[in-house]
Amino acid sequence: MTKITKKQKLVAEKVDNEKLYSFDEALKILREFGEMTKLDETVEIAMNLGVDPRHADQMVRGVVSLPSGTGKDVKVAVFARGDNAEKALAAGADKVGAEDLMEDMQNGNLDYDRVIASPDMMGVVGRLGKVLGPKGLMPNPKLGTVTPNVEQAVKDAKGGQVEFRVEKMGIIHSGLGKMSFKDEDIKTNFKAFTDAIVKAKPSGAKGKYVRKVSLTSSMGPGLKIDIAEVEGA
């Protein structure tokens, strides 16, 4: 007979796959699982949206600042020269450069969470489309990653701003902070993120927009959240 682990037993006792949990209920259950792992796990959200991102008028993409931060050390690369390069470094950028940075990335050094560029550098950055594009790292004016104010863009990236982009199955997901955060800080981030997604509803979306929301942690179960909490965000 197969031995049931403590985690499996807790799932059986605590998780109802048919139930729609409040955010507070779900976080409480995830904390119980977190006590078993002894790790500072990431609290994550997944949202199933009624969109088909293959159509341009149904793409959901943007940025949102999580008020409580992400708890993650965000690695930022900046394409800039002169005064802008100095400001980017002072703001905390991990790597700043021009053609040298381009060549570094072409050689496969792409360990960054955000790539920012000043407008005058787009001639250089444009050559990296096939390298940065598939990883979702290509600087984009609509996301604030092509900007004359690279200093502020670096501060935003380091301070809790996250990008979101719907995947081909209509799913969008993000980290909301660490288990070591206070409950109210994770909830504030949850509300900021879900509010941003609701506001980003594209013109081509038909019918029900937010169809399913779930909360999980790095090693915890997925718990369905009552959509009313999101639509009232």
UniProtKB/TrEMBL annotation:
GO biological process terms held by the UniProt record: regulation of translation; translation
Record-level Gene Ontology MF annotations: rRNA binding; structural constituent of ribosome; tRNA binding
GO cellular component: cytosolic large ribosomal subunit
SUPFAM superfamilies, sorted: Ribosomal protein L1
A Pfam family of this chain: Ribosomal_L1
Keywords per UniProt: Repressor, Ribonucleoprotein, Ribosomal protein, RNA-binding, rRNA-binding, Translation regulation, tRNA-binding
Signal peptide: none
Record has tRNA-binding as a keyword: yes
Family: Belongs to the universal ribosomal protein uL1 family.
Subunit-level organization: Part of the 50S ribosomal subunit.
HAMAP family according to UniProt: Ribosomal_uL1_B
Job of this protein: Binds directly to 23S rRNA. The L1 stalk is quite mobile in the ribosome, and is involved in E site tRNA release.
NCBIfam families on file: rplA_bact
Descriptive protein name: Large ribosomal subunit protein uL1
